[in-house]
Q: What sequence folds into this?
């Protein structure tokens, strides 16, 4: 299917996530290992449109495996949503003799990539990089494990103060559409309650649970709230609501915000990024295209990108039950 | 002046800070070393009023030096602001044969303690524990160094995203009245600008500086804002203002919040807490009272509590100049 | 099969690993949730023999999920290897009305547990807790993920010096029989070479590889060596050997040692420990015995303990290939 | 004295220490601020001899303040100990129009620098960068605070295992001639005993102390040993000696090694490095030379380099007393 791949492009797109540099490094080194040229495009699709690129060899990526963020930078590109934009990008790739692309990012990145690939017959492989872990076809996305550790470390700190002052803390974590981060960090940090987009248990249940735990002798509590929770109240309103209804609680709010995206990647994310990206390059060299690489049951697999984009990776609802048991 | 000290009480009050447990441990162990009884009061002045206490021996404080928060908990007490409240506390101490108190906290704690001490002729020594570093008579307060590291580590993470996306981040840090945290973390994290309560350089200067740095080729920037900054705008309004006036910036806000109070204390804070608290007990055993211990030029000193409370520890304004030079 | 379980014992045995406390906590809280008594035995089998136990309720385990080590302590017990020792333990359990045990530990723990269980007809369930990850029937053991992060963080620090001084560092990591830690941290830390017990590639290959990487422009390198590597040389002899044969390298050695066992558990290990231990208790309450719980493909499963002990969890040798590609 | 300084060179020498990059950055940015050229020399004196240099502007040092190690690398140079070597270095500087040098390093660096400066009439200013904190004329050297935190964090981890297994750990830390690291981390990590080069209390005292603490109910202990301790036994021999004499102890050894030099600098070290280096450049621009900058009582001061080199910064022996009290 098409000509032999001699030069591979790589870019990162969407929100940055820890381990993206480990992924870039693995793409570059695997190209070097197979004597294939490698070109990095800056700022995702926008850099492809603008032709902002850099030639990358094995030494270009030294001492990057441990860095957060992405050395190729990331951006959202409205221009790439137009046919003209994508045509410019394709022309740039052709002119630079780039035969195929590795796209590191989330589902928005892959969706744009698929349209582009089909319009211009340029092979792509997707590498799932996002802290949200909401992508089908892989147990874990790059950056998710690091984000979990960052959140749990932050809540551990907040718990020091919560315990010292007998306070209730509402901690908002990332996750507009998916509760992966909230659910796992809630269990990992020993939260009393966890509010996620996928399951609205209602405000009454929250009050009940907090009152019960107070009676059970707990003097401080943490509630982890996903950005996209469906209670109809934001995290500040939630705290107010609880203060009004359970006046014995001195409720406070912390919004963890952007610290969740950055930081040195965990070992898990570095190894995951490395394994996925080696495979991505090998698939391209093997003539494959339109696939996403993923980790399933500890093995690296690949699946059709269109299939991956059909649904969302869903949370394991049994974790809600685990959380309830553990907050006894 | 008065009878020999045979039993010493210890409590923590005000906002908790990392290293308070190292201070408690040092009070307890020093008492044990000098064969003096030690009693811990829970929740600061309120626990003294309620008579909520625990007898502490050398083993009671094992494996606590590395814990954030305070095992004696902390609270604010309105009742202690009344004569009746303080009289109850004094009666409890007398009944428990507690001859003197070590108070670990900030200036509010010391002010209350001085009134109490004079009314009831109970010797006290203050140990400065607060992340704000705003106390006269010591170069450093317990918890301040840890808080600086927590903030800088958080901003390092935010910078990963800022650099990856060419963004401007406003990061709010603690410090209602004092700019110590903002100033030092601003320099430590390489911030473009630092806004502190002590010095209002005006919004025009902020815009000028950001515009200049953009022209100088900087693509991302961090502005560290103290809670108590005097621009007249909160951190969200500041970000809006900059977006309106410098539309090329994609400005975001992160409020670090309560993660700044918690966490494992740094070595510096553990050693500081240990040295100050050993001295506090030794001073009481030596018949001294009404003093605060502090670290001056790396030595442990003591000063009159009333003197310490007369003014505020002021920032070194030369650091603003350093910051300006380094954000060139 | 046998009487209803009304009181469950829990213990930790073998080398401690981060997350053991999260496992204990989950056992205790799950018992509380199902209104079942819970008893902790100190120091593993030895505490069962000595009858050193503590009654545990939901509040006993507060603020422990984030602690390294094990609050129930661990020990090796020669006495438990004798029939008399095990008989004493069984008598103690019977006297205390403990109907079943949850054993948290590695394969040595499970082997001893199985003998005991069959001799005295006491149901047990095993929860895999060891940093070595060498247990069949689970993708991950509790503590392994944290140990990977600890090692990678340490090597990141060593790399700072290696890069600054153009040095070659040999870093010895734990793993007497299994190369899981070496292999994954080697990839995660970007090591040049990885020496593991499972695969002896020979010293010539090591010299070749180091010489090639020097010629390719690398000025510093890390070699990760598993304790149990099969080169026939220990890590210090390896460094000497390389210095003699490749005199341009200034080779140094660091043995990471016991820091690998400790530390706050990662979020992954906390969630893993929680999920496994909830299931362990539920299985016992459900009348099951002689099983080990494990995580397979992100789900909690259980397998027969005798089956689990038949073989060893084997490394994925494809990771050696990945490592070779990435050190290009 | 001599011509106006228009181009300043900067280098790092001796063992690397965290914060050296913050120092380089501050030298570079301060030069830029004062419209002065800045040239970096690689690998310390050896790079000056070889003329291995790089022109540095404000953007060259972006995103370096948080990195361990030194981007200019470091090395020891035998050639610089010869007149010929120094003459070559001087010739290179003259040819490159470098008028003055900022030397970042320890006393060996400053000693070599002073000989060079006097022979060739090239102004130098020393910036104290070493984890050992053994330099006169400053309360703190760059990297020392970070090293303390690294060591304490490592011992915290070891303590998890020590407590879980009732073990005695001997932990060797850096410090061949000075006990600063051992003394402060020993207090910060709650060690039972601390062995330093400056004070040999004898092996009997060690045994006495360990036996006493065992009787007092301690079940695990940490002994921190400085590399240069004067017991006449290395850390492994010490452990053997204790095992023979106190057989109830299961004594283990960990040598922390090179992890102590690396890692992200603490906020303290970043601010210290920044303040010292701004001053170093300002002194050169002001016509000063032969000085070392230092922090005394929280202020930046300077002293004569020859004076600084006359003695060693000595430990505060009162800390030994504090340690004894706290290990009660």
A:
């Amino acid at each position: 299917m098409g000509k032999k791949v001699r030069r591979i492009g790589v870019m990162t797109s969407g929100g940055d996530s820890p381990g993206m540099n480990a992924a870039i490094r693995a793409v570059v080194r695997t190209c070097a290992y197979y004597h294939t040229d490698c070109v990095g495009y800056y700022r995702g699709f926008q850099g492809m449109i603008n032709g902002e690129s850099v030639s990358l060899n094995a030494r270009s990526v030294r001492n990057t495996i441990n860095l957060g963020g992405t050395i190729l930078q990331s951006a959202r590109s409205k221009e790439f949503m137009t046919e003209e934009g994508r045509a410019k990008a394709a022309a740039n790739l052709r002119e630079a003799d780039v035969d195929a692309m590795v796209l590191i990012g989330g589902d928005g990145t892959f969706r744009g990539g698929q349209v582009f690939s089909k319009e211009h017959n340029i092979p792509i492989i997707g590498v799932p990089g996002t802290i949200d872990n909401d992508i089908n076809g892989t147990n874990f996305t790059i950056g998710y494990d690091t984000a979990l550790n960052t959140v749990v470390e932050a809540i551990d700190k907040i718990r020091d103060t919560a315990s010292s002052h007998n306070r209730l803390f509402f901690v908002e974590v990332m996750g507009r559409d998916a509760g992966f981060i909230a659910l796992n960090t809630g269990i990992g940090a020993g939260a009393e309650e966890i509010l996620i987009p996928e399951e609205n248990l209602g405000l009454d249940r929250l009050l009940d649970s907090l009152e019960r735990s107070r009676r059970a002798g707990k003097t401080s509590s943490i509630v982890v709230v996903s950005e996209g929770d469906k209670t109809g109240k934001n995290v500040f309103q939630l705290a107010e609501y609880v203060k009004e209804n359970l006046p014995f609680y001195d409720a406070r709010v912390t919004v963890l915000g952007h610290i969740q995206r950055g930081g040195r990647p965990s070992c898990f994310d570095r190894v995951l990024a490395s394994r996925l990206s080696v495979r991505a390059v090998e698939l391209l060299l093997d003539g494959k295209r339109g696939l996403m690489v993923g980790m399933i049951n500890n093995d690296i697999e690949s699946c059709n990108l269109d299939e991956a984009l059909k649904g969302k990776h869903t949370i394991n609802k049994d974790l809600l039950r685990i959380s309830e048991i553990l907050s006894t």
